[in-house]
């Protein structure tokens, strides 16, 4: 059976979730959030593997060759002739005995010459150095994680967003959206506000999102995607994100750790097919860098006004995007919980970098729309995004608060 249409539907789910979360805010001074309870226990982090260079094995020295007796006799005669000539000219009585003594000295010196001029020892040392350098270079190659990838960032200054306000949503909030495509129900998207804790010395808040295919599509192309993000409570900038892709037996895990001080992003991809394959890369991203899901919740902290517009960089798990957000107007929208007054917002995003090739930078920008309620909670209620099969629409169908989770 041809599963290409279902794969396109699966990709549209990811676009729908990205559309909901494709907003960004700058690292501006915001008032500290006020929470009723104290932070939870610290959140554990995964340890990273350390790589070491291989050591070259030691090599044994070669045997030193010795001179023949014939060569020694010849050399002794030549040395004796040179050393006896001068004493005979001076008419020394002990001169006849000199050749014997000098000959003995010459014989001793010829035995010591081979020890000083060993021809194979330098070769052994050079061989050992070459091997050790090979192992050293191999170790450096393993440790070299910081790589450069193509980028297409504008050189102009970005439009700054307004200052963040108070947190309007409660802990334990759960939002459920019904996804429709081609006038048929094709899946659900669930967003949750989780627990508080400590990560890398910062007070963080856990946010999560889940995508699941509908019962009909489950028989052909099952989807179980999830996203979990830990954000700084004050700035709502991401500290760590975990994206798990599970579609029709294909499982991929993307882990991103953000250093907002220097822009370094540590990225890990793990694929589970016949063998588990893990890839770790460090990427220099523009900072502040935001993330899709956390940006949606940061948008809810803004005092939205018609005509407002701003830009920011967002990380979607593998690609870096420049998002432009505009508040177009106010509309009355029908949802699963009734009619709701909301702000209509346009979102346009273009790929500007990431763990990608140059070809990805040539993709045209994608534009969609979202609606944020004008209530005290600034609840997202609707989103529309284009896909290969047409428009995909996600509408809020249920809302609840579970404080115990």
In percent, how much strand structure appears in the residues? 35-45%
Parts with pLDDT < 50 across at least 5 consecutive residues: 2-10, 12-41, 45-69, 82-113, 129-144
What integer value in Å does the Rg equal? 37 Å
* Order of neighbouring strands in the sheet with most strands: 8-7-6-5-4-3-2-1-15-14-13-12-11-10-9
Secondary structure: number of strands: 15
Shape: globular
Q: Compute the average pLDDT.
A: 75
Please render the helix and strand layout as text.
Elements: H1 4-21, H2 69-89, H3 98-116, H4 121-143, E1 173-181, E2 184-199, E3 202-213, H5 215-218, E4 224-232, E5 238-247, E6 250-258, E7 264-272, E8 276-284, E9 290-291, H6 292-299, E10 309-315, E11 319-335, E12 338-354, E13 366-373, E14 380-387, E15 390-401
Parallel strand pairs: 9-10
Antiparallel strand pairs: 1-2, 1-15, 2-3, 3-4, 4-5, 5-6, 6-7, 7-8, 10-11, 11-12, 12-13, 13-14, 14-15
Helix pairs in contact: 1-6, 2-3
Outline the structure in words:
The protein has helices at residues 4-21, 69-89, 98-116, 121-143, 215-218, 292-299, and strands at 173-181, 184-199, 202-213, 224-232, 238-247, 250-258, 264-272, 276-284, 290-291, 309-315, 319-335, 338-354, 366-373, 380-387, 390-401. The protein is an alpha+beta fold. The chain has 2 domains: 4-28 and 152-401, no CATH class; 69-142, no CATH class. Helix 1 (4-21) packs across helix 6 (292-299) and helix 2 packs across helix 3 (98-116). The radius of gyration is 37 Å and the shape is globular. The relative contact order is 0.18. Mean pLDDT is 75; it is low at 2-10, 12-41, 45-69, 82-113 and 129-144.
């Amino acid at each position: 059976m041809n599963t290409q249409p279902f794969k396109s539907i699966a990709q549209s789910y990811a676009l729908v979730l990205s559309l909901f979360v494709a907003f960004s805010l700058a690292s501006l001074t915001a008032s500290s959030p006020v929470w009723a309870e104290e932070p939870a226990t610290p959140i554990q982090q995964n340890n990273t593997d350390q790589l070491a260079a291989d050591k070259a094995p030691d090599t044994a020295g070669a045997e030193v060759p010795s001179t023949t007796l014939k060569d020694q006799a010849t050399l002794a005669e030549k040395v004796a002739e040179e050393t006896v000539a001068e004493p005979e000219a001076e008419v020394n009585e002990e001169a006849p005995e000199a050749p014997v003594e000098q000959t003995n000295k010459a014989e001793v010196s010829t035995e010591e010459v081979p020890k000083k001029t060993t021809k194979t020892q330098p070769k052994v040392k050079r061989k050992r150095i070459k091997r050790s350098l090979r192992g050293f270079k191999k170790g450096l190659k393993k440790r070299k994680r910081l790589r450069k990838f193509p980028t297409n960032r504008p050189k102009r200054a970005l439009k700054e967003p307004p200052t963040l306000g108070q947190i309007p949503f409660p802990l334990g909030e759960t939002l459920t959206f019904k996804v429709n495509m081609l006038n048929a129900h094709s899946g659900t998207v669930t967003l949750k506000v989780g627990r508080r804790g400590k990560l890398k010395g910062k007070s963080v808040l856990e946010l999560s999102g889940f995508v699941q295919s509908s019962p009909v599509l489950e028989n052909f192309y099952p989807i179980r995607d999830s996203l979990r993000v830990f954000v700084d409570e004050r700035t709502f900038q991401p500290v760590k994100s975990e994206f798990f892709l599970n579609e029709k037996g294909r499982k991929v895990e993307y882990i991103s750790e953000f250093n907002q001080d220097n822009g370094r992003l540590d990225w890990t991809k793990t694929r589970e097919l016949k063998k588990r394959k893990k890839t770790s890369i460090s990427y220099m991203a523009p900072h502040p860098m935001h993330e899709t899901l956390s940006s949606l919740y940061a948008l809810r902290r803004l005092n939205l006004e018609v005509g407002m517009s701003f830009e920011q960089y967002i990380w979607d798990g593998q690609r870096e995007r420049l998002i432009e957000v505009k508040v177009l107007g106010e509309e009355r929208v029908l949802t699963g919980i009734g009619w709701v007054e909301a702000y209509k917002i346009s979102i346009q995003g273009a790929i500007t970098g990431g763990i990608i090739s140059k070809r990805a930078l040539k993709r045209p920008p994608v534009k969609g729309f979202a609606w944020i309620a004008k209530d005290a909670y600034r609840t997202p209620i609707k989103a529309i995004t284009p896909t290969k099969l047409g428009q995909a629409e996600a509408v809020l169908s249920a809302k609840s608060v579970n404080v115990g989770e």
